[in-house]
Amino acid sequence: MRIPPRTSEVRVPRFVGLMAVDARAAASARGLFLNAPDRPEFAGLVVDYVVRQFPAPGAEVPPDSVVYVWFDFGDGEGGGGVREPRLPAPPSGGLQRELGEPGDAFEMIAR
Length: 111
Description:
This protein has 111 residues and is an alpha+beta fold. It has helices at residues 20-29, 107-110, and strands at residues 10-11, 33-35, 52-54, 60-61, 66-70.
């Protein structure tokens, strides 16, 4: 059995999707520090959710490294907003085939 050599590197956990308070606790447990460039009041945040991080989850970094997290999408990066409830409701009846014009459904195949 091959035993990998011990390294002093720390594997970065996935912070995306965690609330600020949980992200700080997870980073502290691994000996990492978090910095939020888009939130100067980061130390007081509790329920905001992390949407991006650098370095990526799984990267190996030295102990006491800083991991950057963001709580807002930048311009053009998504953040489509709330999509429910959808009004008006979608039509019932499941999937329906869309035809260009009424007539033979297989007209284009027969040519």
